[in-house]
Amino acid sequence: MTGVRKGLAKVEVALRWDPSPAGTPANDLDVVAAVYGAADRHGTPVQLVHFGSRSPDGTITLNRDSHTGQGFGFDEVMTLELHRMSPDKVRVVIGVVIQNTGAAAGGTGGAKTFADVAGTGFRIREGHTDLAQGDFAGLPHATAATVAEFTRDASGAWSFGVRLEGFEADPEEFTRAMGGVR
Asked: Which Pfam families does the UniProt entry name for this protein (predicted)?
């Protein structure tokens, strides 16, 4: 008898960061999910899910959205129901983008980078099992970053890989580039 490989089913991506110091503009980080179809695995996403949106089929939702980082633990949480995605959706790239990029820490102008935001961290888990944890300390000059990639194999099973890469791009540029071949 051959085994049936289940792969990943329902995954949670969580993001945390510390609030800005008193009297400075709030730091607003956002989780972004780009879904790619079989016809164009690295080009234009067929779905882009971020703050204020969800996937049309309801398989990706932003459960918690913070604009300040205030709270306990993880302030922004996105759920991906990979097992419910249609078979033509074969790749999901998860990213994080810093909003309010026009006002760097200290009011010096320019784009905020991960060096300007204290206490950053991410966690990716399925159920109670952590698949990955990390932070953005290694990407101090980046204004956005990819974090993870989920891919569907020929059997339909989803797998996961960490893809921590920094980008020096505004949010629009980042969403166009985040799924490209690197």
From this structure: TerD
